[in-house]
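#struct-pred
JK: can someone run the complex with magnesium ion? inputs below
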Amino acid sequence: MTRLMFIGGFLGAGKTTLIGKTAELFAGKNQKVGIITNDQASELVDTALLRCGGNETAEVSGSCFCCNFPALEAAVESFLEKKVSVILAEPVGSCTDISATVMQPSKDRLRGKVRLAPLSVVADPERLAALLRNDMAGFLPSAVYILRKQLEEADAILINKKDLLSPATMANLRHEAAKAFPEAKIYLISAKTGDGVGEWLADMVLDGLSGTHLAEVDYDIYAEGEAALGWLNAEMKLTGDQVQWKPFAERYLHLLSDTFASKKAEIGHVKLLLMSDEGYLAGNITKTGEMPQFRGYLPDSGIATMTLNARVQMLPDELQAFAFDTLARTCGDAVAFEVGTSNCLQPGRPNPTYRYDAVASA
Ligand SMILES: Nc1nc2c(ncn2[C@@H]2O[C@H](COP(=O)(O)OP(=O)(O)OP(=O)(O)O)[C@@H](O)[C@H]2O)c(=O)[nH]1
Ligand SMILES: [Mg+2]
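RT: done, C-alpha cells with the ligand placed:
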C-alpha cells in the first residue's frame, strides 16, 4: 500500500530539502514518489525547485492542508491513480494542529488506501535552541507559540542541519529537546548531506506510531501568530545583457536582509528561484542577519524568470513594497524587471475542515 508521509516544521527548517533528499533515496530503490506542496498562495519556489530535481509534484495552494482537506485528499488520490509507492507532503511552515486536523482525518478518510507514517517535524537547530532557552527575540510570542505547538504534536522531531553543529551542541540539543517534548522520538539529521536520514526513514515504516497524540492549541493565539507574518509570492521576468545571475541574486538577498534588519522585521524565510532554459539558482535566507545560501547553477544570460516567496514579520503591503523597491535598486540600469504575478497576504484565521479532539484508531 502507498505510504503517506507528512513532513512539517517551521519556516526555513529544511522540509523541502528533506523531501528532495528522501525522494532521491526512494527513487534509488526504484520506488515511485509523489510530492504534495502547500501554500497560502500560488507561485511556489518549493514546487518549482522540486520539479527542477525531476520530482513529480502536486500543489495545494490558496489554503493550508488543514483548511482545505478535500484538496489534499484529491492530490493524494491523483497520486494513487498514478500508482506511486510513497507520497511526501509538506504542510505550510506556519501551520500547527496538524495532528488533529490532518493526521487524524487522514486515518479515517484515507483508510485502506494509504499507510500513514508518523508525523515528522523538522526543526532548525538555532531556532530550536532559542525556543528551549525561551529566547526567540524578534518573533512575536504568538508566532513562537506555533513553533512550540508543532514540536509538541510531533511523533518524530528531526533536528536538522547537523552538518553545522559540533558534537557537544548536538548532544545537548537532543537531550534538551527530549526533555521538553517527551512524546516525540528525536533524530539528528542533515537533510543537505543525507546524514541520519536513513535511520529516520527506517522508523517511518513502523506502523501504529502515526498521529499518536494531539497538542492543545488555542486558535486565538495561533491565528494571531499566523497573521503576524506577511506573505509575498511573486513571479517576474528579468532581462539584461549577459547578466551574471549569482552575484545579482547575492546582491538582492543581501539588500533584502539589510532592509528587513533595519526595519526590525524578523525573517521567517525569504527564498528565490532564478530559472532559464539552461539551469536554475535557488537562494534562501531563513533568519534575519543570516548569510544567503545558494543551490544550483544558472549560466550568464540575457533573460531569466524569478520566483520570490517571502514570509516576514511585517504587513504584507509593506513587504511587497520593500521587495520591489529593493529589486529596483538591485537591477539599477543593468537589468529590467517585469512583474507577472504578485500576491501579498496576511494568512487568515485557520478554519480546519476537520478537527479531531481525540486520537483516531490507526
Ligand atoms: N547546512 C544545512 N542547510 C540546510 C539543511 N537543510 C536545509 N538547509 C537550508 O535551509 C534553508 C531552508 O531550507 P528549505 O528546505 O527550503 O526549508 P523549508 O522548511 O522547506 O522552508 P519553508 O518551505 O519556507 O517553510 C535552505 O537554504 C537550505 O539549503 C541542512 O541539513 N544543512
Ligand atoms: Mg519548503
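RT: quick notes.
The CA atoms of residues 220 and 349 lie 8 Å apart.
DSSP finds eleven helices and 14 strands in the chain.
JK: thanks, will look after standup
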